[in-house]
Amino acid sequence: MPLQAIKINDFNSQLMRETTIADELTVRIQALYQADTRYHNFATAEQAIKHFTQAFANIDGCNGDGLYVGMFNDKPICAVLCHRIDKNTESLDFLAMHQQNLNRGIEEQFLKLICQDKQNSDVQFTSNHDEILKIIKNLP
Fold first, then answer.
1. Distance in angstroms (rounded) separating the CA atoms of residues 51 and 55
2. What pLDDT shows up at residue 62?
3. CA-CA distance, 38 to 112, in Å (whole number)?
4. C-alpha dist (Å) from residue 50 to 42, 76, 77, 109, 121
5. Which parts of 1-140 fold into alpha helices (H)?
6. Which residues share a beta bridge with 109?
7. pLDDT tens digits for 39-97?
8. CATH number belonging to domain 4-137
9. Residue 125 contacts residue 92 (beta carbons within 8 Å)
10. What is the pLDDT of residue 58?
11. Cα distance between residue 104 and residue 109, in whole Å
């Protein structure tokens, strides 16, 4: 199964067909943020999960905010928070990648899927992180 970018608005989303532990999606996303700190400044992975949980609680159903999760073979391998800045601008921040996928071009592929998802709208993407912004600006 190819890489998919799926937006969630809570950690109870049923992205994984099979789970072996309670809250497995949360545990796996937390592990992403524990292992990869290149694109975010959370001191701990627990802070990342708390930040996303608070963001989910503040989501207005129409504003486009959410956590995009990169799914491959029924497992989350990357994640990035998307939040609307204004009517035509969304920011992609706090990217994390699974350790085995570092330096394999997955970051670009994942962000490209997200941007393509909105290509028929007038939405432009930006980021508060220079490296993420560089990837976004270099997408075809």
1. 6
2. 47
3. 19
4. 10, 18, 19, 27, 31
5. 24-35, 45-57, 106-117, 130-137
6. none
7. 999 999 999 999 998 888 876 544 557 999 999 999 999 999 998 888 889 999 999 99
8. 3.40.630.30
9. yes
10. 72
11. 10
